[in-house]
Every structure is written in C-alpha cells, then in structure tokens.
Amino acid sequence: MSQLRSLAGALRSRSQWMMGHVGTGKRVFNPRRDCSSGAPEPSLAACSSSYVVEMYYAWLEDHKNVHESWDAYFRNAQASGSEESGEKRLSALLQGRGQSQTPAMSQKVVEDHLAVHTLIRAYQVRGHHVARLDPLGILTADLDSFVPSDLITSIDKLESYGLGESDLDKSFQLPLTTFIGGNESTLPLREIIHRLETSYCGHTGVEFMFINNMEQCQWIRQKFESPGIMIFSDREKRTLLARLVRSTRFEDFLARKWSSEKRFGLEGCEVLIPALKTIIDKSSEAGIESVIMGMPHRGRLNVLANVVRKDLDQIFCQFDSKLEAADEGSGDVKYHLGMYHERINRETDKNITLSLMANPSHLEAVDPVVQGKTKAEQFYRGDTEGRRVMSILMHGDAAFAGQGVVYETFHLSELPSYTTQGTIHVVVNNQIGFTTDPRMARSSTYPTDVARVVNAPIFHVNADDPEAVMYVCKVAVEWRNTFNKDVVIDLVCYRRFGHNEMDEPMFTQPLMYKQIRRQEHVLKKYADKLISEGVVTLQEFEEEVAKYDKICEEAYTSSKDEKILHIRNWLDSPWPDFFKPDGEPKSMSCPPTGLSEDVLMHIGSVASSVPLKDFAIHSGLSRILRGRADMVSKRTVDWALAEYMAFGSLLKDDIHVRLSGQDVERGTFSHRHHVLHDQEVDKRFCVPMNHLWENQALYTVCNSSLSEYGVLGFELGFAMASPNALVCWEAQFGDFHNTAQCIIDQFICPGQAKWVRHNGIVLLLPHGMEGMGPEHSSARPERFLQMSKDDPDRYPEFTGDFEVQQLYDCNWIVVNCSTPASYFHVLRRQILLPFRKPLIIFTPKSLLRLPEARSSFDEMITGTNFLRIIPDNSPASENPEKVKRVIFCTGKVYYELAKERKQLQLEEDVAIVRLEQISPFPFDLIKAEVEKYSNAELIWCQEEHKNMGYYDYIRPRFLTVHHKNPIWYVGRDPAAAPATGNKFTHLTELKRFLDTAFNLEAFKGRSF
C-alpha cells in the first residue's frame, strides 16, 4: 500500500473535484471498473489513493455517485450526522475523536487508518493462503507457492502499508467490518495483527470474501474473528478424544486382522469420524431428523461403523470368503455398500435416521443421487425449508476438482425444484490423487474452488488439529441452518498408506511419504495435549482404548456366524411397508391398468381447459386445448393426452408424479403444455394437472438445468425414497442420455444386483429416424438391450403369471410404444406392479401428431391392459396359413410399413406384428405368433442401422422360440454414426429397406 503515501497530495477541495469530474453528468465509481480488484467488496489495495479520495468526496455529494459496495464501505467507515468537512469527518472517525486537526495531521491520520483498514481486509481476503494447513508441514494446501505481499508476516513489511515499527503500539479505530476488537472499538496495531493472524492464519483458513452478500460475510467474520470464540469444555474434549479413539482403533483392528485385504482405510484423516459426528450432533440439536450421506470408498467402513453405527460383526463378516457372489446384492465390494439406520443420538437424546448411500468407484457419481433422495424425503415430510432432512457429501480432493458432476450438482443447489436447502460438503484432502501430484491434477488454486460458483464459503482446516476441525464443523452447521446454502469443509490431511493398503506410494511421492512415516498419529498428539491440560489421565485414555478394542474382538468372534451373512442388512433405502418382512413382493400379479370412461372423460376435460379464472393464454395454445377437447368428445387420445390420462389417474390414487428434465413443462416438441403461462401477468402460471381432484397427490413438473448426468442422478435418488411415486426423467432428445451414461451403467442397470436397490425410475427417451441428423435420431436402444440380463438361449418357464414373473426377474424394462394407449398402460403398470424396476421408454417425435397414431378410449377402459405385442389386425390375420411373410418391428417404423403394405396391396400376404415390450423379451407371445403363421418367413424390420437398434438382441431369442425358422434382417446397413445428416440420403435409405421388406421374391432359394 505504498500508494497510500500519496494520499496527501491527492487531496483537493470538494468544489474543485466536483467541477472537474461531475460537470454536466455524474460518473458512478465502480471498483470492478476503476480498480484492478475483481472482489465484489471494496479493495483499497487495488485502487490508487486518489481514486479512493475522489470516490469519498463523490459519495459525500451523493451516495449514488459510487458503486453500492463503496457506499456500504463509506457508511461503515464514517460517523453519520456530522456537518464537518469531508477530511475532518473521516479523520475524526478514524482517530476516535471529533476535534479539528491540522492539515498535516489529518493527512497522516487518514493515510494510517486507511492502511490499517486495508491490512484488515487483506487478512480477510487472503489470510487462508498463509494459514498453517498442511499437517506434514511440507506442502501448501493451495497451488500458490508465494506469500501474498499484502499480508504482514514480518515487521519490515509494515513499510508496504506506509507504517513502521513505531506504529505498532499506536491505537487505531477498527472498522465496522471486523470483529477482532470484541467489545473494543480501538486496538494497538500490534494486537490487531496478532488477532488477525490468530483468526485467519492459524490452523484454519477461511475463504469467503468472494461472497457478494454483506450479511453473510459479516456473519462469517463474527464466527472467526471474535476473541475467544473457539473454546471447548472439558466434556467436549473428552468426547472428541473418545471418537478419535474409535476412529483410529477401528482402522488398526482391520489392519491386524486382514492385513492383505483392501479396505481403503482412513489413516491420516481419522478426524473425519468426530467431524461427521459433530455435524450430526449439531444438526440434530437444531431439529434435523434425517441425514442422507454420500461418500467415496476411503473411510467408508469406518463411517459405517462409527457414524452410522452399523453392527461391527456385519462389517467384519464382509471380509469372510463365505459371502458368495451368488447371494443377491453381493455383486459389489464391501467399501461400496450403503446402510440405513434409525437410532437415538446420545448427545441430543433425539431420534435420528442416518442413510449412507451405496456408491461405485465413480467417486462423485453419488452426489446428485444423495441430493435427489434428500429432496424426496423433504417433500414427503413437508419440509420445505430443510429443517428436518439434510444431506452431507464427502469428497476426495482430486475427484472434487476433477469430475464435472460436482459442478452439475452444485448448480442444482438453489434451483426451486432441486434445492435441498443447503448441503455440507466435507473434502478429505489427501493433497494427492492416486499417484498424481495436485499440480498435475487441477488448474485451480484449491481443489474446492468449484464451490465458489454458488458462493459457498470454504473452510480449510488442518486435520491434525481436532479442535479446529470441530469448531469449523459447528460453524458449517450454523451456516447451513441460517442461510440454507451449501458450505465446504476442506480437511487438509494426508494418506498414510498408498491409494489402497496394497499400493506402494514411495514409487511416486518419496519425499512426502518419508515425512508421513515420521508423522505422529493425531490420536497420540491430541491425547498428550489433553493429558498435559489435565482433562484426562493417561489411565483413562488407556482404558478408553482397551474398551473399544474389546468391542472389536467380540464383534469379530460373532462375525463367524453364517446366519448374519445377509446382504439385506446393507440396504440404504428400505421400503418396509411395500415388501413382506423377508423382502419379497406381497403378491405376484398386476391388476388391469384400464380406467372407467368417466375418469377418462374427467381428465380429458381438465386437460383441455384452464382451471383459473381471468387467465390469458396464448392463442396457439387455445387451439391446442380446443383440439384436445375435440379428441375427448370423439373418445380418442394422442400421445400427450394419453400421458395426461396416466398421470392424472395416478394422482387420484394418491401417487405422487414427478416429471423432470430439459424443457419438460412445455415439451421439447411443444406437445405437452403441462404448465400454462399467463400472457398478461409475469410469473403467473397454472398447472391444470393439480386441479383434477379434491384430495389428489401433487404433480411436480419442472424444467431442469441443461444437465443430464446431474439431473438423472437426482431423479434416481428421488425415486429411491418411496415406491409410491412415479418419477420420470425426460431427455430433450434420447441421444443426449449418453452424457448421463455413468448413472445408467452404475446405478440404474445393476442397482438391484449390486445393492438390492429396487427403483422405479422412468426414462423417457425421444427416439426415431426422422432425417434430423446423427445427434437427434437414436436413443441407442442397443445399449440398453445389451445390458438386459434375460438369457437369449433359454425359454423361461414359470408356474404363475408369465408376464409378471418375467418382469420380476429382469433388471429393467425396455419398451418402444407405437400407440398412445400402450404408453398410457405401461406408465400405469409401472405403479400397479407389486415391485419396482427401472422403465426405459423410447418415446416418439413424429408420432406425437400423426393422425394414425391415436388410440380409442376402448383401448384404455376398464379391463384393458398393456399389450406386450400388438398382433396384426389386417386381412392377413384372418387367413394366417396363407400369409407368406410376417414382419416383426417396434415403434414408429410400423406406420411406414403399414402405409407401404397398403399401397402395394399386400394386406393378405404380409402380416405386421409390433413388439411394444422388447425386454424382457415376450417369448410366450412371440411363440404364439410364429406358430400362428407357420408357413410364413420371418422378417425383423427396423429403421436403425444393422449394428444398432434391436436386431442383435431379438435374433437369438427368435431362434430360441422357433429354431427351425430363422428371422431375416431388413433395415439400414451397418454404420458408424446412428443416422445420416442428409435428408435425401435418409429418404433413400428408407425407401430401400421398405422395398426390401415387401419384396416377396427376395428370399427365395434360401435354406431355412
């Protein structure tokens, strides 16, 4: 701040400044424009002294002459009501007295006090850069290797502020933007520096000055600057020590018993366990009843044991080889599993439910899943402010900085339909990835910088200072409860062993691991500290250790009992009222999915009207509503109306329906219009679906951010909370689900096999070759079918309902409906089934408005059901023995085939059978169709390329049904891209395969 020395020379009379700079128009000073600082609050260090003085005089003339941040600064720095000149008013405030001074004295007072104020701000902004955060003492928590020049680290640097050693014992007036004085308004400079270093440069580094909210910044300053605020009682210290004992000795016990097993232990960050328990204690005290947690594998077993309080014998038995892969749900390793547990919190004597979500090795993939489940629990409890349910997310430093789903999840944090009212993020900062140095792993200063995008405060803390960690955890809980915003705790620690216990870290980080081998364990350091303070005795400490060791040994003995080897003990989202006590469905049948005509008519009437009075809708939408009313009067439905019927009927039965995705309120193809917007009144809208019945369930339809990975994970988590909800995610185009492939591959497809996790989420994926290019054509059905687990070479045998039994055995259901009625029935079947499976629906685009693609009420009334296949109903079906060819197909291509058949007048020679449900494959119905047309050759026709679509899936299954008759392929040739980008080429390909499909001579001479 040497620039401040020129302050005296920069002073000028008020009138001179106004004449020279205001003149015919005002110039509003803005620190973002006029200074080099990018900080949202004033930064004197970044502005020249002349600008500061000019802005001050401009502010005296009119407070609007300066940016609002400088207005707030000058208001805080200046006493109100005085009529003295600007110079005297400022100097009087800073000096703490009101008498006039000589010009020379005034200049010096202004300069020194501004310098001290700037110094205070420098610590608030950048103190975390010099905080002692690394327990090893060899690295910095950030990637800046220099000490900020505007921080005082030695007396000689006082000169950079225009101050000297002689000023250390002078008292200075403190600004209102600091709390270091406590009840004192002035302090000696020496004490100011000492208190700033204590607050911002100790074992805690507070990163918050980027937050553009003065109230929130002041709140944080008070929590960290107030003198003597970080004080713990002896009881709290003893509790902290006992929790450290459990955390440390648990890892020691596993290392002794299973020295050659991977466990991804917590060594080097044992303080995580007392940190989480402190967060949970403080949250329970504030009224939280349920905490949903997500974390990577490091430390998971310890969290399960000592935070969630899973029985130790259940954990130890997972190391036993007797747990066979054939056991349902044992398809994942122990450090990926989750847990749900309701217990009494001993610190508050209140019930609390803890849920740790299962997670694959895609470390951050669980983040949106946790948020979705949290949102669902808040929704079902009516907890609109997040006072009863909250989430905690744990991260590794490398994954937190490197994986994009972290950003996607943060961006959901304050969206109305996705917010969970604040999440506490705990980063276990190993200061290294697997073997990768942070300098090679991220471009940001800290691994936590991504959190700045939502103005979340970041508390960096040395993990070898347990009391500092506990204080930060308490502040984080208070922040979340006060402002309902995210907060990040960066536990700067180390990893005592390699990436896992079998890894050798000395290969790549020799110097770090030489220091780690010399590093004293945090438990010993803290125990010695408390013993020296007289808080505990050595004997008490040793007894605490022996007590927990005994607990572990007893659990180890009981873990040998084979009776406890049951994976259902690891459920993270149980539905106790939905299944029987043994986890089986309460029935194995599905009632009819049709509705009475009165219900259909009522829903149709509401869907074609505006329930609110004096509500101005768009003229184009008026035509759409009139069209719906006309369809209802004719007892027909199109795709949008069929969806309306399905959703509305479920709401009547108290089933919550949630539809989420990009632009789903209107629909990408402008077909849905579930939210009506008043054309005259801003932000006035209507959701007619919520006006169907008096005591209906709520319908939630919400446009999402432009995210697939994060939002699909969120909706998956939402669907986990309750089986009595229809949760749908719609991709803008089915092609775009590929950016959410991790959620599909790791959670949706194998969730039940890995974690006994039933889930009824519905994926709506617009699909169809419409000549719109390779990015807007294919939802990649081949990928879903390849991951379906039904055996292509075995004809299933069931004693009960074939359809329901087959659905129960599958891992998900894949359908491509060709009629609105099919879509209506499959949505209702999804809820009426006695179990839950993910449902993948390839939804149409052109069929949304195709006149031929409409259904009659007769296909939806009471007694009707979802048809897994739709048999041919042309003249060919009346004389099946004369049929020469049967074309099997699915989806939109049926209408093109039917049109071509009619033009060629082959309705007696060619039958067309539609597969509405592709997986699980309808063996029984296909067998009946093949036997019905016993003299016909079989064709599979699809619009997708041969190496895509359905052919590779259906071909072996057709052979299993009837091995004597092969099924021939008709469609596009193999290709690398899912569609051509040329409209003419698209139409040429379509004509070619339609010609082939009806060329009855094409397969003559082939040997069957």
TrEMBL record:
One GO molecular function term? oxoglutarate dehydrogenase (succinyl-transferring) activity
What is the documented function of this protein? 2-oxoglutarate dehydrogenase (E1-like) component of the 2-oxoglutarate dehydrogenase multienzyme complex (OGDHC) which mediates the decarboxylation of alpha-ketoglutarate in the tricarboxylic acid cycle. The OGDHC complex catalyzes the overall conversion of 2-oxoglutarate to succinyl-CoA and CO(2) while reducing NAD(+) to NADH. The OGDHC complex is mainly active in the mitochondrion. Involved in the inhibition of cell proliferation and in apoptosis.
Q: Which residues cross the membrane?
A: none
The record's comment on protein family reads: Belongs to the alpha-ketoglutarate dehydrogenase family.
Q: What GO cellular component term, any one, is given?
A: oxoglutarate dehydrogenase complex
State its Enzyme Commission number(s). Answer: 1.2.4.2
Please list the residue ranges annotated as the Transketolase-like pyrimidine-binding domain: 637-850
Alphabetized Pfam families for the sequence: 2-oxogl_dehyd_N, E1_dh, OxoGdeHyase_C, Transket_pyr
Question: Chief location of this protein?
Answer: mitochondrion
Catalytic activity reads: N(6)-[(R)-lipoyl]-L-lysyl-[protein] + 2-oxoglutarate + H(+) = N(6)-[(R)-S(8)-succinyldihydrolipoyl]-L-lysyl-[protein] + CO2
Cofactor section: Mg(2+); thiamine diphosphate
Q: Does the keyword Calcium apply?
A: yes
Keyword terms, alphabetized: Calcium, Glycolysis, Magnesium, Metal-binding, Mitochondrion, Oxidoreductase, Thiamine pyrophosphate, Transit peptide
Q: What is the lineage of its organism?
A: Eukaryota, Metazoa, Chordata, Craniata, Vertebrata
**GO annotation, biological process:** glycolytic process; tricarboxylic acid cycle
**Cellular location of this protein?**
Mitochondrion matrix
> Under which name does UniProt file this protein?
2-oxoglutarate dehydrogenase-like, mitochondrial
